[in-house]
Amino acid sequence: MNKMRKRKLTESTLSLVALLTIVLLISLVSASAKERKVKQSENEAHLVAHISFSGLSIVDMAMQRKVNDKYYFYVQHSKDEGVSIIDVTKPAQAKTLGLRVCA
User: Fold this and answer.
1) Which of 9, 40, 58, 86 lies deepest, with the highest CB count within 10 Å?
2) 3-state class (DSSP) for residue 85
3) Quick one: average pLDDT of 30-43?
4) Global model pTM greater than 0.70
């Protein structure tokens, strides 16, 4: 009879440990599934202006910062179409300075 009691105690102890383990695992999973705020990158691109190049194709682009804190955006077009120069010092007020055709 003593062996039977010990066996029942052992079985109920194992059942209790198994139940507590399951509860612990469920609480850990639900704790790690909380939503986290996504940090926005400072380098993310945002549309601030749109410049149309009617009839010109775009091949390449580059930006240059001058010593006087002026920023210029160069847009290379297809062969014989030239390069557009845009002042983007104030991006929301971008100004097309002209088109230079390279011969």
Assistant:
1) 86
2) strand
3) 63
4) no
